[in-house]
Amino acid sequence: MTNPWAAAAARADPAVGWARTATTEVSLTRARTADLGAVPKGRIDPRQRQVRITVRHRLGMRPDDPLAEALRQGGGFPGTLQQATDSGFGALKVDGQSLAPTTRLAPVVVSSPKQVTAEFTVTLLRQVKIEELLRFDFTAPTAFPLIVVVRTVTVLPGEWAVLRVEGIQPERQESELMRFSVGAYPVSMTLAPDSYGFPDVAEEDDFSWATALGVLTACALAVFLVRSLGLRWWQRVPNRELVIALAIAAPALLIPLVAEEWSPVAYVILFVAVPVMAVRHAGRVLPTSPPWTVRDLLTVTGLGVLVGIGMLSWSWLHGQLPGRTLLTGAAIAALSAAGAAIGFSLDLGVRPVVVRLAALWAEAAIGLLALALWSRALLSGVYPPDSVRLVLALSWAMIPVAAVAVATRRWSRGAVVGAVVVSLLVQGWPTEWLDAGSWSLAVPRAVVPTIGTLPLDPLVRGVLGLLLLGFVMLVLRLWRLGCQVSAVRNPAAESTMIVVLMVLYITPGGSTTLADIDVPLPLLAITSIVAWVTARWLLTGPRTVVVEPDTQEEHRQFIRAALHKRLLLLAEQELYRTGRTRLGADMSMEEFDQRRRALESALREHGRHPETAFATAAGCTPWHNGLSAFTVSLLLSLPFALVFGWPEGADLTGFLFDGRYLLTLPAFGFLFGYFYPRVRGTQPMTKALHLAAAALLTSLAGYLSTLVEPDIGAFDKAQVVAIVVGQVMMVCVGLGLFWEWRIMHLADEPWARVRNLRSVRSLAAPALALVLAAGTTAASSVAGQTVDRILKGDQVTTGQR
């Protein structure tokens, strides 16, 4: 859309146009606190430079220039401010991480009898590394005809020095100033920080721990993933075909990283080919076809009609087609389709069937008409932006529909509705679909959210959604396997659990370069490896023969036998303790031997059910136990969200990834409940303490590079350790106490029979957890900026590239 002021400039007499003068002043300063006030704190890195670039464009013209009057009238401002400055003076592109959107002040117009001057001010905020160069690209003006033929540019570098220039012939060059004139062609300039020196020889570490850990983690995940599916899964031909097809499609998704112009191929593969493969696989695996009825088809096509009406309304509002033409075309299409349906089905003689088919065909005709108009708008480049995401989300929804059907072994209408809702969330939160101008031709340029330097476009969101779906499928597999008690010893269930833990503990640690593009990748911090090792350590300890109860009644009998044996052991201990003083006084040797033999006989009789009764699954399935432990662990860890902060994210996958720290300790709790009979120890509290050791080692591993960083003080390191230790002990000890109560509750026995609340020794473990939790609260309440940054993931990544 042409700016009114640009059109006015084009209508001016050539002599008036040549009388215009344009100057541009670019100044670099250190960003002040006031400049960074609106920037989220998590985006500001104090170890980097925050630079403010101020660009002032001044345009001088004669009073009779039509452009002066157009500027006074506004010219579509502020919506066309960016187009005005970029088309008249050329856009300025600056490297570095953007801290905030570019801001533009209202133009200042100063009039005098001899001249009119308009000043446009543009502000950019950038964040660059200490040793990073800063490149300016002055693009050519895009207005036709040109508003000004030659413009003078003055650069005030401040704390920067001009390192190299391209296409520039300086008119004046000093340490603090460079001035040059430029026409309708692009030029560039590269600046270097004054205080940074470039070494003659760059020392590079040939060995990267980040890369080595990434390869090791990827290999371990692949091995455990293959083992989690089991040999029987791989023996089925449809499963092997699906894996081969996905392996072929996966590299094609990297096409946009190498050749952006081939991005449509990746879109077709992800949103057409992969859904078709998923539905085909589900159709071959499931024993029955989908139980969809005519009512279901009418509902779906009815929803399609609503979307179609929205598209037809958009086509009418924005002049794609006249309203009368749209109404006439929609009526003719619907009536023709309904008439054809009646003609083909009239011989059936069943009126309800004929009516339903007519309605179905009419709705389908309106939907196809709207789809055709949308395709035409897409080809012409004039379409509602959110309509693309809507169509892509509906196509992508076929993948979770098929996945849930395969996991549950049946087709479900609820799964279809849930999959559609989730797919819409994967492509963006509902608020993103209701932004001002979202369904308008005058679409404001929105800031595209990113992960690192990777923009969250629909393709990236779809791939992240696939990864999220894969994680959900692993959890569903644990549910399917965990419905049987034998899953505790099932290698496939163990491998699946280890994969889930490793995925939750994957932490991005940097980026890599692929085809000269900086691509953020999860360089897989050591926490994922440690989670694997500690999980294996928990499940491969010394094995004690445990007799599993098949029913709740058997569990009740085992617990009562164990309590009886505890009582006998205490009685035997008391007999030997009192025998020291009573033998020879008021107790004879015969009486002592008689009591001892009676206790030993009773102990032999109850030796069949030792205290390993407290190490059984209590007659419950692994999934039920794991879900109970996960719920309790999550409730115990939620208060620590006040320390680590609540998760945030631009979309569903980003939100879940940011909030994965809320699920890491509960995932260890899920492992504790799911594989409880195999966890080291024979009592709930000893098992919980082993769990605490594993979880604590894994959690602290994420801060390993930070804890050895010399630039961080010992007090800050101690605060971080106190917070992590307090959280782990609070969750694990609390889970152990709950599990002890739960075992007794399932046996219909009071908890006081195993834990006397009046005994100091019995309360030692809970008291320790409370002391550590109190210390954590105190540490978090006085946590400074450094501790806050460490806990929220802004860690020093030494040795990573």
Automatic annotation (TrEMBL):
Q: Does the keyword Transmembrane helix apply?
A: yes
- Stated name of the protein: Uncharacterized protein
Segments passing through the bilayer: 207-230, 242-259, 265-282, 294-314, 326-346, 353-375, 387-407, 414-430, 459-479, 491-507, 519-539, 627-647, 659-676, 688-708, 720-741, 762-783
Tell me the leader sequence span: none
| Keyword Transmembrane among record annotations | yes
UniProt KW keywords: Membrane, Transmembrane, Transmembrane helix
